[in-house]
Design goal:
Keywords: Coiled coil, Membrane, Transmembrane, Transmembrane helix
Structural class: alpha+beta
Order of helices and strands: HEEEEEEEE
Largest sheet: 4 strands, antiparallel
Radius of gyration: 60 Å
Shape: rod-shaped
InterPro entries: P-loop_NTPase
Number of strands: 8
Length: about 220
Amino acid sequence: MTEETRKNRWKNWNFWFKVGGGIIVAVLLYVIGHKFASIELEEEAMKYEDVKKRVEEKHDQLEETQKKLDNIKNELRENNQEYEETQEVIANRNSIQDEVDKLAGQVTEKKGEVKELKKEIKDKNKELQSVTGEIKEAKGKPITLSAGKFVVGEDLPANRYKVTPNGNGNFFVNDGVDVNVILGNDGDFYESEYVFEAFEGDKIELTSSATFTPVE
């Protein structure tokens, strides 16, 4: 084999060695690049899934927050309605209280008028007695009745009587239809004596003892 032939053969081997080495390097680079690309894609996919999961969680949180907000709005609406109803009740109560106060004032005024009228009646009775003279007692002993219910003709003879109290109490004849007075000596509302006509069958009721004196 000549020297020239050896050189050519070596050149061919060297060429193919370089070509093969280049191919191997290219393959390795492709494999390595593909591997890194796969890793990056997997990481990107993981990041996407993580972001998607977080978005879904935030969306759920947003819906839950919206529900709470709706509940709060409903509660505020109900509370506002209750507040308006309460204000209306307070206004009605104040109106009623004003009417009560007004009526109470009228009652107090009427009581004063009644007191004045009783005083006037008492004064007129005194004037009448001074003009016509004192009532003369008729023949017959005074009769004292205790507190209780009595019938004229059974417990007390029919007659004209002057009734004087032995304490403070009510005096009714026929359930207050014919006579309804308060006997006593403690103030303007009490009568120290009272004259009436007792007829057969009349029903007398006393809440305190009184003395019945026959008069003409």
